Structure formats: structure tokens, C-alpha cells
Amino acid sequence: MSNLPCENGRPMKKDKKENKYCPVTLEPELEEIAAMWGANKRFEMAQKFRRWGRQLRISGFIMLRASHPDVKRPALQSVGPRKAARN
Q1: What is the C-alpha separation between 51 and 59, in angstroms, rounded?
Q2: pTM of whole model > 0.70?
Q3: 32: part of which helix (H) or strand (E)?
Q4: Domain boundaries, given as residue ranges, for the chain
Q5: How far separated are the first and last CA of the chain, in Å rounded?
Q6: 3-state secondary structure 54-78
Q7: Taking phi first (over 0 means left), then psi (-120 to 50 degrees means alpha), and beta for anything else, what does residue 8 get?
Q8: Is 19 helix (H, G, I), strand (E, B) or coil?
Q9: Considering only CA atoms, which of 26, 51, 53 is closest in space to residue 37?
């Protein structure tokens, strides 16, 4: 993250040298996507991307485990008859 000048009239902060810089800069690819989004849309998409990231991480872990046949799979634990009846 560099201290690039702000665009679109966003408020600027000053550093110790009195040079103005933008308080937040995004990665170029993300900036292309989010350039026209307001604050509420950014919060909404952040939540969605966080959820998608978690799903991708878990599915990748499952695929990695499934691709290695030598990894010992955990055995299912036995369940007592009372608990089994509740299912």
C-alpha cells in the first residue's frame, strides 16, 4: 500500500511531512471491481467474499485429503442406542 493521492474527492489525511495521501488504497484488481461501490455495498460484498473464502478453503482441504489415499481416515464413533433412536 503506497501513499497515493486520493481521487474522487475522498478526504485526505496528512502525514508528518505535510504530504497528503489517501487513507486507504486497494489492490488494483479489487479497485477495478469496487470502484463504483458505496460503503454499504462494500460491507455486503466483504461479508460475501469472507463466506466464499471459507467455503473454498474447506473444500480445498477436503479435496487435498481425498487425493491422498495413504492418509488414515478417522473411523466413525459408535453411538449408543438411545442417541441413535433420537436421530
Answers
A1: 12
A2: no
A3: helix 28-34
A4: 1-34, 36-65
A5: 53
A6: HHHHHHHHHHHHHHCCCCCCCCCCC
A7: left
A8: coil
A9: 26
